[in-house]
Amino acid sequence: MELKTNPYFRKTVKYIHLLLLIGACSVIIGFFTIFTTYMIAKLSGPPPIEIPQSTIYYAEDGTVIGESHNGQKRYWVNLDEISPDLINATLAIEDQRFYSHIGFDPKRIAGALIADFKAMAKVQGASTISQQYARNLFLSHEKTLVRKIKEAFYTIRLEANYSKKEILEGYLNTIYYGHGTYGIEAASRYYFNKNAKDLNLHEAALLAGIPKGPNSFSPFISYDKAKARQELILSEMAKQGFISNEEAQKAKSANIDFAGNLGDKQGTTAPYFQDVVNTQLKSKIGLDERTIELGGLKVFTTLDSKLQKVVEEQVKKTIPKNSLIQTAVVVMEPKTGYVQALIGGRDYQESSFNRATQAMRQPGSTIKPILYYAALERGFTPVSMFRSELTTFTFDDGREKYTPENFNHKYADDDITLMQALALSDNVYAVKTHLFLGMETLVETAKKFGIESDLDEVPSLALGTSNVRLIEMANAYSLLANGGKSVEPVFITKVVDSKGKVIYEQEKEAVQVLDPDITFVMNHMLTGIFDEKLNGYTNVTGQSILSKTTKTYAGKSGSTNMDSWMIGFTPKLVTAVWTGYDQGKSINRTDERQFAKNIWVDIMENALEGKPDQIFKPTPGVIGVNINPETGLLATKDCPVKRYTYFIKGTEPTEYCSEPKANSSDDEQPLTKDPEKSPWYRKWFKWID
């Protein structure tokens, strides 16, 4: 009783009660503060976590061909697209109790305070993954009290509104790994040239160590420091049960193969093609510049990387390095319109001007298949005849005169057939046909073939004097190659946004716009420039590259004083080539005039190597008969030359050739031939383009 009445005892008890009351109040206030802060964070809603991300461009086979960014490589991948070893390594070294704390780790904070007190310096961090993520998203890295308070609040907002999986995924996609790479996908590609999901244990442990200090632990800056931290992380992973001790030791001794900054080199793949893709993202799909550059898009293109390489190699092989001749090439899949390869010049670094899609040049005789399609459509047949001789045309009520000339001033001075005129590229025949049909006919037919450039209704239009783009001509020939269905050049098949939503997908269906029977007849005539020489006659326009061909091709060359063209195709591949000088300088040298043809044939032969020959299959409305090409009549056994020729049913000749010629080596040919085993039309002309 004396102790209870002792005034000192009673005072001590009061102080204890007071301290307990203060403690209880502090706890209540603390819980209330935490609860209130949490509720405020919850009511404030989820903080925005969108960040700028690199837009990635993919070839048709899924390989990366380029990217767009502002100097920071960022790619967002889902957590299940990241190697589990990388996730475990990060948790082991950065935040062991990530799944059990609410954004702050009291035990780690206490440990850090003790370590700092003992060292009398800042030696150990206590930030959790949630805190680091908040800092990366919303704050600078300055070490001030205000920043710490903001960091704490944003951390609570993240924890209150997002799941642990979402926070971990966000952290791994935003943390800095050095050398301009943000996020594990960018780091994985940069250091190892592989996706984050494909990282193995020793690679994952090394990457997990970099964020602590990219300038210190990057293996490209200090391999020894990076390796020491990797081994520390592997030991921690074993200690925490993520891996066994044996696995840790094996990973520590594993050889590390770096890719360096190989990913940077991907930006040089098909730069002219990628420029067109960017233009279409804006003009066709309607995306703004910032979304394209920093929106984290995945852009799937039609590019065939292997074919693109073939094109680039053939251009380098054909045109001498010191030549000022420029070139452009477009390779398309005619059925879909997919542009599989494209170059707009010989060196993108010297000139980014895209001569395939921007330059306007005269197509020369490559316009003639469109003219002759119109002629067939209006009653001409492959054996319709005009006289080939030097001719002066008078028009505009006699006020204007026009005298077209053949190449090297060579004329038949006789009647020739349409198929002869096409194979020889006879200019007089073309102009006569053009004027016979009416000059508006070629303009209208060209529009049907998808040519949008303005064409002048003049006599010389039949010889390709109105400027067009190479991409337009490649597309026009695609209509012939695919049997007459409308297509347009396609560069982009699909665009996916940063959240995985498809925002664009190519779905346009081809529509039949050309007559399939006439198209087949036209294609078959276009194989004529590659027929073999026979009976001592000089060959036609494909003679210079005939020795290189191993497949059945249809095509047409064209030339003006300043332009050289070659466009040819099979049922599944179209290649268009232009060569010339940017300043409109004349092409005077014979070898320079052959560049386009040689580039074309080398591309086609390489692209189709090892593949079966693709022939144009006759349509139901056509009929094939043996023709004597000099008379245009049905061939008999007495005719010196016979060619299997297709006509629209009902338009084939009904009269027979009966005048034999001496010294014929073809007298014993059968009246009919298998069109799939025998060339349609062999070389028998005296003149060349």
List the helices and strands and how they pair.
Elements: H1 2-5, H2 7-43, E1 55-58, E2 64-68, E3 73-74, H3 84-94, H4 106-119, H5 129-138, H6 145-161, H7 164-174, E4 181-182, H8 184-192, H9 201-208, H10 214-217, H11 223-239, H12 245-253, H13 262-265, H14 271-283, H15 289-294, E5 298-301, H16 305-318, E6 326-333, E7 338-343, H17 368-377, E8 385-388, E9 393-395, E10 400-402, E11 414-417, H18 418-424, H19 427-437, H20 439-448, H21 470-481, E12 485-486, E13 492-496, E14 502-505, E15 511-512, H22 516-526, E16 554-559, E17 563-570, E18 573-580, H23 590-593, H24 595-607, E19 622-628, E20 633-634, E21 643-648
Helix pairs in contact: 2-6, 3-9, 3-11, 5-6, 5-7, 9-11, 11-12, 16-24, 17-19, 17-20, 17-22, 19-20
Q: What is the overall silhouette? A: elongated
Percentage of residues in strands? 5-15%
Strand order of the largest sheet: 2-1-5-13-14
Give a short account of the largest sheet: 5 strands, mixed
Number of helices: 24
Structure report:
- The protein has 689 residues and is an alpha+beta fold.
- Helix content is 39%, strand content 14%.
- Strands 2-1-5-13-14 form a five-stranded mixed β-sheet. It has a five-stranded antiparallel β-sheet with strand order 7-6-18-17-16, sandwiched between helices. The protein has a three-stranded antiparallel β-sheet with strand order 20-19-21.
- It is built from 24 helices and 21 strands.
- Mean pLDDT is 83; it is low at 119-124, 262-267, 533-538 and 660-689.
- Helix 3 runs parallel beside helix 9 and helix 3 (84-94) crosses helix 11.
